[in-house]
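Aim 2, interim progress. The first record below pairs a target sequence with its structure tokens.
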Amino acid sequence: CLSMYSKSNMYYFNKDLYASVSSSEDPYQLVRDGKWTVDKMMEITKKYYRDLNSSGSSDPEDQFGIAGTTKVHFQNLLSGAGIKLVDIDDETGNPYFALPGNTYAIDVIIKLVNEHKNNSAYLNNNKDANGGIINTEFNAGRVLLLASTIWNYDNYRDLDFSVGVLPAPKY
């Protein structure tokens, strides 16, 4: 992407919500130690789902471990797995679509989709075909991790809770 700001993805992190569920693991230390992985992220975020309105099913009024549009959240996860959707041909120097024949990439995609299927801890906040990124549930303090971009930082800097930033987890 030519826009470094709109495609510099990360996870905004609600530090206060994290402190509300007992956990001895410091997420920043997990990153420093190379232990911030998809499996660890999913393990942690599943602890945060709460059916706040007692509807019996996951809906935007609940509390979530992770939220984000599919295009940002899954792009983060694929990047953390080292998957390139487009690469440069060594011989020609031209870009090419890198997924066909890449069995590692397909295996990772299948695992990630299966991990998110029927996972009430994940809120897919695609509001329209373009996937609205600003997350009102995060702003309300009901989401632990939000997949977003540096471009949206102004939307999260004056909230009533402490916000941190985490990178995409490793696969």
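The second target in this work package is listed in the same format:
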Amino acid sequence: MEYCQYSSRYDKFLAGEILNAFDPALSNAAIMDIGVYCIAVCAHLFGAPRAMHAASTFLHNGFEGCGQLLLEYEGFQANISYSKVSESIAPSVFQGEKGSLTIDKISMPGEIWFHPYRGEPRRLDYTPDKNNMVHELAEFARLAAAGAVEHPGLVTSAVQMAVIDEARRQTGIVFPADNA
């Protein structure tokens, strides 16, 4: 999976202006801003990886601008690529023994295609939401109205945070708030 989006604030960073999107003092990094979309899909579909390997590229001010994760599961791996300093034109791809699925934009899918190893590719019947946050907002409203906090997404969130924490440990992403 990949999510690489050239930040609208990166040109200002390159010109010497450090905005919040590239300020590590604000406990920000590309993995937390962009990479989390790919991590969320893996956590939701596959759960916690049995092992992982992380690599990051840092900008001159210590901000993590892009990175790679290899998540190991029983019988397969998930390779994640994310960036705030480059734009990708490639879709996310799920490869299997009978073919591949491509998703045009993992953070907000618009088109999903199945590419069988034998036969013609076909677009899957999928209608994207105009705003893909509607489901999260509806669940939040339901929980608030019920005065509840327990829901199935908590397990996925815990896996996401564990992956991010381990990636930060492996790559040396440390924020001032970590030592406060």
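The chain has a mean pLDDT of 93. This observation will shape the mutagenesis plan for the next reporting period.
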